[in-house]
Design a protein that fits this description.
Chains A, B: Keywords: CBS domain, Repeat. The structure is a homodimer of 214-residue chains. Chain A is built from eight helices and eight strands; from the N terminus they run αααββαβαββαβαββα. By secondary structure, chain A is α+β, with helices and mostly antiparallel strands. Chain A folds into two domains: 59 residues, Arc Repressor Mutant, subunit A (Orthogonal Bundle); 129 residues, CBS-domain (Roll), CATH 3.10.580. Chain A has a four-stranded mixed sheet with strand order 3-4-5-6. In chain A, strands 1-2 form a two-stranded antiparallel ribbon. In chain A, strands 7-8 form a two-stranded antiparallel ribbon. The longest helix of chain A is centred in the last third of the chain and has 14 residues. The two termini of chain A are 32 Å apart.
Chain lengths: 214, 214
Amino acid sequence: MEFSERQARIVEIVKSSSPITGEQIAAKLDLTRATLRPDLTILTMAGILDARPRVGYFLKEQKESSPIMEQLRLLRVGDFKSLPISVRENISIYDAIVTMFTQNVGTLTVVGENQNLKGMVSRKDLLKSALGKTDLQQVPVSIIMTRMPNIIMTTADEPILDAARKLTLHQIDSLPVVEAFIDEKGEERYEVIGRFTKTNVAKIFVQIGTLGKR
Amino acid sequence: MEFSERQARIVEIVKSSSPITGEQIAAKLDLTRATLRPDLTILTMAGILDARPRVGYFLKEQKESSPIMEQLRLLRVGDFKSLPISVRENISIYDAIVTMFTQNVGTLTVVGENQNLKGMVSRKDLLKSALGKTDLQQVPVSIIMTRMPNIIMTTADEPILDAARKLTLHQIDSLPVVEAFIDEKGEERYEVIGRFTKTNVAKIFVQIGTLGKR
């Protein structure tokens, strides 16, 4: 359970003096009701608080986790991932940028034999190299890519919530979706089978949100 | 209500022969149960279908819209927006790229007097100009920015669901959050008061998802 500090204080207040109205909670925190609205909404959606009209907020009995959450955790990366767009590590930075535009993606996976993950290149990486004196046509993408083992990855069976948390926590736009395998030398490798991006998260959010409206 | 074609077919099947199990729906569509899982989960979360163990899926009575949706629609852009990072239109492309790195953002708003919105510049725009023969130090950002009236905007009171749909529909990473005003010549202008990005959407998604877990 990850509370913001303010959300934790709201839960404490409701615990000690429920039922309590939004206005009363706001007064105790020296904030306006409007400022508190998103926190109260999120705590209610997550099944932590419940609200009765004209009565106020109270802590929800914790018989089970909220149904929204149970459902959300059933959604897996493999069900929503996009196709990976991969290049080889000897491709020039220039050609990597061109590939990004022709394929309309923001991140490329750099792979070896058998789609074996070697690196990741983002628009940010490419832009940084364009800023310098680098000869974009000559320098290979391997020079600027993020390499193993510094790559944040996901797998097809990871819940999308956990993958989305990796994206926000590490401030990246895209995760490679991989399957681990052991190569002929007995070393662990990762075959790239997809990509999971902030765009995928936004689409899932919109899809869940839009279906209910009628 | 925006169904994918497959989701619409699932609803039709459930309508004509409920209760029906996931396996039976999959058989009618010539798909595996695993392939169907995300669609069934989303339709259930959105309050369109309901499922009873050992019985199967049936259409949910539509007394009201789903509680998830009602709650989601209460969340507004103004409660979750980030601070805008703005530059003037005579700044060089080079300095715009540097600003992006120092401020750690993916999109800049280009403004005139009174934070009046003139344009938007994304990493993609800057990368495209870096690919050409453009002198990044000499050419102003106004040459490559997306201009009014082609800018997709949002406002503080827009539901985040609608703003998220704009992001996915128009394939952009960031929306300027604006307030309309009338300038001294009587023309409508837009003051930039924030930015709303795919990162904001991913954070909201993670926050809602994580709070319920215990």
